Amino acid sequence: MSSDSSEKMSAVKGAAAPIYFGPFLVTPQVTKYHQLPQVFYTTPLTYALVNLKPILPGHVLVSPRRVVPRVSDLTAAETSDLFLTVRRVGRMVERIHGASALNIAVQDGLNAGQSVPHVHCHIIPRKAADLDHRGGTDAIYDMLDGEEGDVGKVFREAGNSSSERAETRTRFPVVDDKDRKPRGPEDMKAEAEMLAREMEKEPVG
Amino acid sequence: MSSDSSEKMSAVKGAAAPIYFGPFLVTPQVTKYHQLPQVFYTTPLTYALVNLKPILPGHVLVSPRRVVPRVSDLTAAETSDLFLTVRRVGRMVERIHGASALNIAVQDGLNAGQSVPHVHCHIIPRKAADLDHRGGTDAIYDMLDGEEGDVGKVFREAGNSSSERAETRTRFPVVDDKDRKPRGPEDMKAEAEMLAREMEKEPVG
């Protein structure tokens, strides 16, 4: 292992084992499989990752380490740990983004709009009037479920394996926002490292 | 206590203490405060209740017994129990409604669209093409965040205490559905009792 990859790993405690988001390798320490340096927090059962194209600043995902499609596939321990991590990561992103609320959502299965067949919980920090220019508070859901929130598409665009899932799920009309571009790996790496440091400041309880 | 109220209580294990959804009393055993017979499942820390106006069949809510507005206000034990209950109730409503997926969503705070300042997790069973007539899979979010999904409005209409919260939160345009009427208390009581029986069939793990 090169010193460069060791350095990358140091930002993510306990991330020695490869971490998959559905079919996509997302751990930062391996570079030859087109994976993204997205993971910023891990527990033995759960991890949290940044997005290529967050629909609002601080939009992150929390997933179980084990690749299963449905919440009902999780063990009780995995379920508890997933949502304790959601609570802790949510508190952190709300704090660092100066937000006052969070949208927390799981599209649990294809017919609920799930794009990658691996349980993932969206956490989106919210502020007063943050989406007034997009139609109001609840425009977040159009964004989450339009092309902007398609985390599968994001991975496919980033050069990972393809999936026909996006074609089979029904989409809500996309809110147009041509000004926002997908970020580069360096941006995501910088955010993931910043979030990893911020997680260390969060109380465990 | 009359035999009638004892009979009502029998459908809800462990619901001897009054249960509040925000300012609204929702336990079935008291009738003089305009409360609704909505609670169908309780644990020492969590309860589940049916809706007056579900946005799809089987749409239910899961809340902590303790009245707090934010997920971050919950203890670790409350957080675990809440989402273990979400998993268990979700499995049940998916089964009895012949669904294939679930939308699971928490509007965590006013600026995320929360209508009643008490943590509540929406669980909505989904099927293929169930919302094709409303615009597709993700029309659920318009419904959740329009007037149809305003659980505060539902309680206010049912004769409970008023709140200015609905006026302060920004709304996404309402999907119009004049054909659906709020249900009567007897309908909700019958559903709550049916769901209470079905919960007893769910494995605990």
Provide a short characterization of the protein structure:
By secondary structure, chain A is an alpha+beta fold. Helix content of chain A is 30%, strand content 16%.
Assembly classification: homodimer
What structural category characterises the helix and strand content of chain A? Answer: alpha+beta
H and E string of chain A: HEEEEEHEEHHHH
Rounded to the nearest angstrom, the distance between the terminal CA atoms of chain A is 35 Å
User: What topology, given as strand order, has the largest sheet of chain A?
Assistant: 3-4-5-7-6
As residue ranges, the low-confidence spans of chain A are 1-15, 29-35, 154-178
Count of helical stretches of chain A = 6
Report the β-strand fraction of chain A as a percent range: 15-25%
Helix content of chain A: 25-40%
Number of strands of chain A: 7
| Most extensive interface between two protein chains, with residue counts | A-B, 56 and 56 residues
| Mean of residue pLDDT values of chain A | 74
Largest sheet of chain A: 5 strands, antiparallel
User: What radius of gyration of chain A results from the CA coordinates?
Assistant: 16 Å
Identify the overall geometry of chain A.
globular
